[in-house]
Amino acid sequence: MEILVCVKRVPDTSENEIEINSDGSDIERDDLVYSVNEWDNYAVEEAIQIRDNVGGSVTVVTVGDEEDEEVLRREMAMGADNGILISDDAFEGSDGKGIASILKAEIEKGKYDLIMTGAQADAGAGQVGGMLAAMMDLPYASLVNSIDIIDDKKIKAGREVEGGNQEMNEIDLPCVLSIQTGINEPRYVGIRGIRKVASVEIPVHGASDLGIDASSVGENGAKVKRLDYYLPDLGEGAEMLEGSTDEIVEKMIELLKSKGGIK
Amino acid sequence: MAQQIFAYIGHNNGQAEDSALELINAAAKIDSTAAVTAIVVGSGIDAVCDAVAKTYKEVWKIDAAALSNPNAEVTRKILVNVLPADCIILIPHDTFGMDLSPGLSVKLDSTFVADVVDIEGNEGGNLKLSRQEYSGMVSAHMECDISQGAAINIRPGSFAPDESQSAGGTVTDKSGDAGDIAESTRRFLEVLEAEAGDVDITKSDVLVSVGRGIEDEDNLEIIHDLAKAMKADVSCSRPIVDAKWLEKSRQVGTSGQTVKPNVYMAMGISGSFQHMGGIKGSPYIVAVNKNSKAPIFQLADVGVEADILEFVPELTEKVEEL
Ligand SMILES: Cc1cc2nc3c(=O)[nH]c(=O)nc-3n(C[C@H](O)[C@H](O)[C@H](O)COP(=O)(O)OP(=O)(O)OC[C@H]3O[C@@H](n4cnc5c(N)ncnc54)[C@H](O)[C@@H]3O)c2cc1C
Ligand SMILES: Nc1ncnc2c1ncn2[C@@H]1O[C@H](COP(=O)(O)O)[C@@H](O)[C@H]1O
Predict the structure, then answer these.
(1) Is there a single domain that holds both residue B169 and residue B205?
(2) Same structural domain for residues B103 and B161?
């Protein structure tokens, strides 16, 4: 089975306090810790497990710049066979549709049975996978939390739906799946694994390699644009308890008693 | 002419979801004069249509036996067949909307916007709205060209419900326009119900809930100790379940359990909307988080900026002394 996984390098929200820069045009990028989008890491682990079971290969691809290459290497250290960096100044400022159409052009150059994305990335959109599938006229399922390969024509995939229930579907290959966290336990990647793939050649594909009309993507092609970042005023918020730990604990116990938290 | 606006009605077991009442108010923020048409797609949906007609003047019913089970792929085909060109369709941003809408916008050749929490206004097809990014840590104003139509996913709970129930609307059967919706490349098999766990957190009065801030499985002990001292049950956010540190039945949130305790202790939980979506009945929320800007502090009643690894044992000790 030839599997392609779309991955994105994102600021790690569990490692950083995300702050807005002074004019609101961006988040504060200095000293940010980046990592591979959490959902994508689960997708790559799933792809590796499928390959190890049924044979084939795993290719990881990202649309980004040279700094984003590091996530390809990380996922290759995990076990992906190939990496492809898609990079071009013309791609900058693309919206979801732009990214999906760029990925489509890359996918059409190869022959993949299974294409995976994460359920969502840093902007919480969850759009690229579904768009890609529709653009390629392939079946799609989102929020996938289990995959069984039935044969080389079809799979059984579970979708996570409300309340922790699972919606089971049979899907024809090739197809596009967006992967939900918890589908597996992604393996640990040590520094030694990263060193091993440090010198592997990663091809870089630009707009002309992929036959993409530069005006259809990037800032110019984007119909959805961010104007600025801001912190919403959500009213009062919590009463923050201040003082020494002893004082805070004492106050909290009083509050908990009055609210029925401690009987 | 103004763009036509549609509201996609989510429904479950013959009942419209709460979002049905919210989408009409979201639509009003795009165009306050628009007559919004509700679309109900499914099988055996008369009761849903009648209920929705109390809120929407016009309801389109698309009844198809193929949809006795949810299938976003089939629904997408139907919508492409029935929707007029360049229209705006509002869809709840839930697991079905996430499945349906991105591809729908491609097929309609319209603009897609995910998980919208507020709408500021529409100036000649230039729609200004708000979203959240980075797990709700920051918000963003967006500008969207919707002149050629749009599929817009609206976060459930973000707009006030219209409870007037006074529309006295009519239901129009559009099933004949659904088109060929024969066997799809994705076939529904069954829904597997979530497994019950050893405790039923939906019945707990007091929950001590733990999130990724606990950092390590071994540290969970301090949470169990606090819960024991408070005679409370332990619940958690999703990453704790993903890591297999606690069972799925203890997960609070849209893809976990819906809880309604009197007191909810959020320990090292950031306060994502999917997590908070599982907390109903406005409990007294206590949040402890080491980041003073964590969204949970906007939602909690009382907060402490502290490291839970240090704070929780102190609290436990004092509670035990009582
Ligand atoms: C379709 C879908 C459904 C989902 N369903 C659910 C759901 O049902 N339930 C759910 O919970 N999530 C759900 N999620 C995931 C959700 O989006 C968030 O990723 C998740 O809720 C984050 O959990 P968290 O707050 O524990 O972790 P994080 O967001 O990583 O937050 C950890 C917090 O701990 C704080 N912290 C770190 N260390 C310490 C310390 N030592 N002391 C004190 N504080 C500390 C940090 O400042 C941070 O605020 C869903 C996501 C999707 C896409
Ligand atoms: N720049 C990108 N390069 C490669 N894949 C991406 C990119 N942006 C998004 N994706 C994929 O699309 C998924 C969903 O992202 P999004 O639609 O942006 O929330 C991610 O988890 C990735 O798999």
Answers:
(1) no
(2) yes
What number of other Cβ atoms are within 10 A of residue A198's Cβ?
9
Interchain proximity A96–B112, CB inside 8 Å: yes
Strands A224-230 and B138-145: antiparallel
What tens digit of pLDDT does each residue of A15-56 get?
Answer: 888 999 999 999 999 889 999 999 999 999 999 999 999 999
CA dist list (Å): B93 to A89, A125, B29, B87, B192: 32, 10, 17, 18, 22
- A152-163 residues labelled b (16+ CB within 10 A) or e (exposed): eebbebbbbbbe
Cβ–Cβ gap A139/B132 under 8 Å: no
Query: Residue B56 and residue B152: Cα distance in Å, rounded?
Result: 18
| Residue to mutate, A10, A13, A14, ligand 1, most ligand atoms under 8 Å from C-beta | A14
Q: Shortest Cα distance from A99 to chain B (angstroms)?
A: 13
Contact assessment for residue A107 and residue A4, using Cβ atoms and an 8 Å cutoff: yes
Of all residues in chain B, the one with the smallest CA distance to A234 is B298
Cβ <8 Å between A27 and B138: yes
What is the rounded distance in angstroms from the CA atom of residue B167 to the CA atom of residue B144?
Answer: 30
In a domain, B190, yes or no: no
CA–CA dist B182, B179 (Å, integer) = 9
Look at phi and psi of residue A93 and say left if phi exceeds 0, alpha if psi is from -120 to 50, else beta.
left
CATH of the domain at B270: 3.40.50.1220
Domain count, chain B: 2
Q: Which of B177, B209, B241 is the last residue of a domain?
A: B177
Examine residue B188 and state whether it is found in any structural domain, yes or no.
no
Nearest to A97 by CA among A134, A66, A64, A122: A134
- The verdict on B105 and B247 lying in the same domain is no
B193 belongs to a structural domain: no
Closest B-chain CA to A10: B134
**Residue B34 sits in which domain range?**
5-177
Quick: pLDDT tens for B153-188.
999 999 999 999 999 999 999 999 998 887 689 999
One domain for residues B147 and B237: no
Residue A97 dihedral angles phi and psi, to the nearest 5°: -65, -40
Q: What homologous superfamily does CATH list for A2-221?
A: HUPs (3.40.50.620)
Cα–Cα distance, B36 to B8 (Å, whole number): 10
Tokens linked to A31: 């000293």
pLDDT at A233: 75
Closest CA to B275 of B261, B290, B296: B296
Q: Are A113 and A142 contacting, i.e. CB atoms less than 8 angstroms apart?
A: no
pTM: 0.97
Rounded distance between C-alpha atoms, residue B184 and residue B162, angstroms: 36
Flag whether B293 is in a domain.
Answer: yes
Residues in chain B predicted with pLDDT less than 50, given as ranges, are none
